Amino acid sequence: MPLIRLSAITSTTTSLLTAAAAGALLVGCSASVSVDKATPKLSADKLATTVAEKLAATTGQAKPDITCPDALEGKVDTTTRCKLTAADGSTLGVTVTVTGVDGNKINFDVKADNTPTPAPS
């Protein structure tokens, strides 16, 4: 699957996808986010919003429902897990990994799991 390149610049102050389709689209993504702190950190909510907005813009699909339970700390190789929930209730795990930090800018890749979890019956 192709790698989808994403970039975003934000400040800390400042769905119709099915899980199967999301799996095909979310094989790999990258993003960059600027934050204002000595050790950059991106809140869980802002991370989820950034990933969802960029996926929607990249794919031309509706903005997916993404939740991230943890903030992303700006240290190389730091990871956090997020979850994409499709309109039918199925889910797809998403791993976000910091690939670099340049001052207040956090660069990260996003990779979805290969297999969605079906919606509860």
If you had to describe this structure to a student in words, what would you say it looks like?
The chain is α+β, with helices and mostly antiparallel strands and 121 residues long. It is built from two helices and eight strands. A six-stranded mixed sheet has the order 1-2-8-7-6-4. It has a two-stranded antiparallel ribbon with strand order 3-5. β6 (79-85) and β7 (91-102) form a beta hairpin. The longest helix has 16 residues, at 44-59. It is elongated and about 45 Å long.
Task: Please provide a brief summary of the model.
This protein has 121 residues and is α+β, with helices and mostly antiparallel strands. It has helices at residues 19-25, 44-59, and strands at residues 4-5, 29-34, 41-42, 65-67, 72-73, 79-85, 91-102, 105-112. The strands form two sheets. The protein has a six-stranded mixed sheet with strand order 1-2-8-7-6-4. The protein has a two-stranded antiparallel sheet with strand order 3-5.
Topology (SSEs and partners):
Blueprint: E1 4-5, H1 19-25, E2 29-34, E3 41-42, H2 44-59, E4 65-67, E5 72-73, E6 79-85, E7 91-102, E8 105-112
Parallel strand pairs: 1-2
Antiparallel strand pairs: 2-8, 3-5, 4-6, 6-7, 7-8
Percent of residues in helices:
10-25%
Q: Which ranges are low-confidence, i.e. pLDDT below 50, for 5 or more consecutive residues? A: 1-27
SS strand fraction: 25-35%
User: How many alpha or pi helices?
Assistant: 2
Number of strands: 8
Shape summary: elongated
Instruction: Report strand order across the widest sheet.
Output: 1-2-8-7-6-4
Mean pLDDT: 76
Q: Which class of secondary structure composition applies to the elements? A: alpha+beta
Give the CA-CA distance, first to last residue: 30 Å
Sequence of secondary-structure elements: EHEEHEEEEE
Biggest β-sheet strands, sense, barrel: 6 strands, mixed
> What is the subunit organization of this protein?
single chain
| Rg calc | 14 Å
